[in-house]
Amino acid sequence: HPPGRYEARPDSRCRDTAGLALAAYVNRILRGIWNQRTITWTSAGGKTGVFENTNKLMKYLGLCNGMKTGYTESAGHCLVSSASDGGRHLVAVVPDSETACAAKSGGSNG
Fold it and tell me: Contact at 8 Å (CB) between 78 and 95?
């Protein structure tokens, strides 16, 4: 490792990621942004466009209300997802999600 570089164990990376996700999740503004299924906007020129959220968990699991996938060199590919039902809330972190998705589909997830 380069001097001064922090190298966490995989379990602490998941715990840290979950902590960050939970801190973001309790912010109603952030939660409202990533919970959008579609966003419609109008440009200054009057043209209207629609952005559709591509989060498949949100599309197929009604309880899922957002978050995202991502990649960092130290943590690798991760899925961070959130769901709510009847006042109960869940934030989940799935490490090595690219490997899991590729294994499930029988191919590469890249």
Answer: yes
Q: Is 37:58 a contact under the CB 8 Å cutoff?
A: yes
Task: Give me 27's structure tokens.
Answer: 């912010």
Tell me what percent of the chain is helix, strand and coil, each rounded to the nearest 5.
35, 35, 35
User: 74: which DSSP letter?
Assistant: T
Tell me the pLDDT tens digit for each residue of 36-54. Answer: 888 898 999 999 999 888 8
Measured on CA atoms in the order 25, 28, 31, 35, is the torsion positive or negative? positive
Alpha helix locations (H) across 1-110? 10-25, 28-34, 56-60, 97-105
User: What is the average pLDDT across 54-69?
Assistant: 82
**CB atoms near residue 107 (< 10 Å):** 9
DSSP count for the chain of H helices, then E strands: 4, 5
Residue 66 tokens, joined: 């957002």
Neighbours of 63 (CB within 10 A): 13
